[in-house]
Fold this protein.
Amino acid sequence: MTSNDLKSMTFVEPRPSPVVTTSSPGSPPSSNIQRMLWLTSTLNQIGGGERLLLEGKKFFENQNIETVVLAGRFSPKALFDGTYSSHNIISLGLPPLPNKKITQEVFRRIRLLPMIHREIRRLKPDIVLCQSEYDCILLWGATLFNHQPYAVLIFGQMFQFAENIAKYTLVFRKHLKEIRASRPGYMATVPLKAPRRGILNRLTEELSAVLRYIAVRKAKKIFTISPQVGWEVRKLYGRDSTVLKGAYPPSIFNYEQKKDVRKMLGLENKRLFLTISRLVPKKRVDLCLKAFGEVVKNRPDAHFVIGGVGFEEQNLKRLAHDLGLDSSTTFVGHISEKELWDYYCGCDVFLNMDVADVGLAAYAASALGKRVICSADADDEADPVQRMKSPFLFSDFTPQNLAALMEEALTRPWRMTPDQKEWLQKFTWEAYFGAILRELSLPCL
């Protein structure tokens, strides 16, 4: 995607045939929606998508909209240490399967259709939401004969996940080269050739892709989290979307640090780099470690704190050991909600090198006044003046470039001005879900 494409997608005023429209934040309107159903296949771990859903549920309930979450899989672990309530969360009891069991997983999800249909008939919601294209298939199937309106929040996209092979199916692969070439992270992680898979899995993926295409096109509204994903949705599905971003409550701007994380970790005299995420390959914590290995050669006072858990944790610890970073790297594991913002406050620079858009954690760190380094994939700001004001620096996927920006971030810290604070206030949950509520309350629904 070119810079001209990006500029053409970030306007506010309506145009005759926009590729992507952007809603402006504000107070939510009086809504014609009284009951909402939110469908998700999985709500069983802590992550950005889970936080978005639970913040949305809380917001809509505060607007006197009864909000019921229907989860194929649910675990209380996803409630962020009890921060969110399990009230009105219904589990359909779908057991997990290994990722390679594609065909079995698809057929097990199909068995959810009558349960979803029954809950929709029982609850009679004004609108049904989901936040993935796969869940959109279930919604389309469950509402096929009753014309229940539904909307989809596309939080991520198939090109952000190397293991998602939908991009190689007949429906979508005609856009593979163009979309892959639009982002450095895609070029680094998405091969042009599809991985080998059995004939049954391939047929299942082809059928799933067709249903996915139909289901997304039938949605009454499509919401995306960045102009990049909005552009991809336009390419893949031929539908316009509304680009909105949300990442934190307004109270973050008045937060006062409660716990001295540096003292707690015994790092009072260190310059701290911090990353917090699920420890999976997509988050590119390995790249951060390699870059930090270069930085610490010239800055012995630098220290890297890594928060989060995941199946990649042991590999990352081995990498830190092999790079000679045992004494300058600390893995702190899961960080509780009560301590999360204190960790942000305690660092000098926050790293978010995910193969994706700017993550929720990165926005939260910036709202707490921290310089943030993100992957070049996250750079969707078309205005060069605004880019200069932004707390974000953008790195390609080489350790050398990231190390140079890490050094720059230490020598050129970011200080939040009133104008920058006003800009960051656009990304509160209230602004985000208020804009969604305005869109969903349009007469067409």
